[in-house]
Structure formats: C-alpha cells, structure tokens
Amino acid sequence: MKSSKVFGTMISELDNCFARLPDYRRGVNTQYEIKDAAVAAFSMFFTQSPSFLASQRLLQKRKGKNNLRRLFGVEKTPTDTQIKNLLDLLSPSLLYPLFSVAIKMLEEKGVLKNFQSYDAQILISNDGTQTISSQKISCQNCSHRQLVNDKTQYFHSVLLPVIVKAGEPRVLPLPPEFIMPQDGHEKQDCEREATKRWVHRNADALKGWMYTMLGDDLYSNQPLCETFLEAELNFILVCKPDSHVELYKTVDFLAKNGLVEEVEELYWNGRYYEKHTYRFVNEVPLRQESPLLVNWLEIIITCESTGKKEYHNSFVVNRKVTSENVIPFAKDGRTRWKSENETNNTLKNQGYNFEHNFGHGEEHLANFLATLNLLAFLLHTLLDLLDEQYQVLRKELVTRVDFFNDLRALLRYMVFDSWDGLMFFMLRALEIPGYT
What we know:
The structure is a single chain. The chain is of the alpha+beta class. The protein is about 40% helix and about 20% strand. The protein has a domain at about 1-85 and about 385-435. The chain has helices spanning about 5-20, 35-45, 50-65, 65-70, 80-85, 95-110, 190-200, 205, 220-230, 245-255, 325-335, 340-350, 365-385, 390-395, 400-415, 420-430, and strands at about 120-125, 130-135, 145, 150-160, 160-165, 170-175, 175-180, 210-215, 235-240, 260-270, 275-285, 295-305, 310-315. It is globular.
C-alpha cells in the first residue's frame, strides 16, 4: 500500500495553523477549542458534506468513535452554531500561510515545475467573483448595490488568484483577497484595488520577474500595470479596442505604415486546419500621453477552408514581443480563461457550493469560511497531483460526483483509522489490481 502522506502532512499543517488562531473569548465558557471549530468547519468543505458533523456525532454515539477525530484530529465536536460564533472574529488572513505551505510542498516534490510556461514563467490568473448575497442579511464586510426595486442587495466578493498553465486541467489556488469596505475609503472597494493589495501583500514572495500576471481588460490600465512592474511581475493582459481607443489609433497608424509585424501558422485541431494569424508591435503608449509604453499583440483564428473567424483577442505585455515568442505569449494570455472554467466553475458547480451562505456572521465569518473552502479545493488538488491512491481512485471513479458520493457514504457508516486506510478500503472494494 503506497502513500505520499499528503493528507496527513496537510492536516498536520492545518492543525498547527489553527492552534495559533487567537481566542477572543472573555467568558468562562471555553468548552470547545478554536482549533477544533476551524478543523470541524474545514472537514465539512473537504468532504463536501454540510451534514458531516451530524453524522459523526451519530457514529460516536453508536460506536464510541468517529472519523472527525480519527482523520481530522478533532477531540470535541462543536455544533454548527458554536462553530459560527467561534470563528466570526477571525480574519481569513490568518489562514493565508497554509497556501504557501501547499505550494512549497509541490515545489519540494518537483511538481511545481510542471506548471512553468514559456521561458519558465509561472502564470497567475486573476479574476474576481461573488460568493454570497442577500437582501436581508448583512455584515460590516459586505459590499452593496441598489436594485431597481429600490431594495439593497448586500454581497461578498473575492479576488481569486490561481496558478495556471495551458493544457493543465488543474489550477493551484493562491491566497485570496476579499473585496470589501476599506478603512479610510469612501468609495466601495473593487477588483482593481483588491489586486493592488494582493500584490503588495505578496510582493516579497513574487519579486524576481519569475511570475506573469494574467487578467482581462479590467486589468490593462496604467495604475495596475505600474503596480505589477514595481513588484517585479511580468504581465499579459487582455486589451480591447473599445476601452483603449488611443492605443488602437497608434496601432492602426503603425499598421498603415508597415510597422506592425505579422506571423501565420496552420494548426490541425483534430477535425480541420485553422489559420492562426498573429500581429504585434512594441513600445506603444497604453493611453494618450502616457509615459508607460507596452507591447501589443493580437491573435485571430480562422477556419482555413471557410475563412470563418473563430477567435479574436489582443493583449498588452511588458516583455518585448518577437516573431519567436508571439505565439507562446498569445497561448499564455489565452490561459486566463482557466480562472472562469477551472476555478470559478469548479467552486460554484462542482460540489464546493462557493455561492452558498454557510454562515454570514457579523464580522469575518463569511470570508473565513470561504477561505476554508478554498483550502479544501487546494488539498483536493494536492492529492490529485501527489497521492498515488487518490489518483488511482479518481481514475476509476471518473467523475468528482461519484468519488465524493462514495466518500460521504463510507464516512457516514464506518470509522477509519487513517486516510490511507480509507483509500485502501475503497481501492480493495473496487477490486483494482495491486490493491486486492
């Protein structure tokens, strides 16, 4: 029975981090540890089962033991209400070091290098998304908008940076940055400001020109580009004509004078040939009279036989574009869409229920729980990359739904001494060669 000990290592790191969470209670009722409340909440996200704690109480009553204690190390199981009360005062930033632990583990195992893109760059795709919303419940960290019916909608949003690579189906979540009211600011917070804070928060770990920031048209503005450059970050950002009128006037002028270079290639997509046309020019102003010069590239994909346009996009980058690198630059720029497909879609529609209100609280609860959910997503990804037993099971139980349905059923009715024991039981029950 082979195991990479990924689950045990990460649970140990979680336990150490949660043990350092501050305890703000001043009364005498301290029956439950803050650590146990955090681990218990994490276990629900990891098993993708809101009823996991209730099922473990029943197991404890019937068998005198339970999986919450055996697998996650929780001594006393708090109720959902107790968990919410204990975690509400805790900032999600207290959990951010765990993301670095996971990335370091991938680096030590030699897996992080598999996420390197052109010129050994690590691509970080950025996108904001809404988590929860309500017209009735709000907290001090809510944003708000007025609806057409004159009612107020309160909501939480978050910036979700992830490491991506073209052709790699998995993404690696990095510490989030919550979009919420900021002290001393009258205007509502926004994705751009959250991105600046995220860069400043992580500047020491990111500097050195080893990372490339990806983003949609919202990011291709001078203040954000300057923020990236000051932090020694490269960028490849979507740049649309309607929001960059002066830049495109410059590009059109240069094109008319034969100063915009062009590269073409034919690509067989498995059914027919596509013609990929790339145009690029260096050192154009991002906006009128801007001191910031960027390099522009465009990709147009057409069907070779019919001439029908199938894709068209353009980007601004900080690195010089040449006929040798324009194709990989465009490929990396297009990888930004993994933020929507492999991140937001997975979190919202593949069992994590990221838009579900697991608990709003009065201060940090909603954001703290969202961060625990992201950590569960990250641990699942680590297992998928590093744990042989998990990999074999996921290959046999192809869909995520099948795997977690089986996992929840087993944990509801049986108690396992370890994660390895649970994995081996599933492998043996499925009669997979080498595990029977």
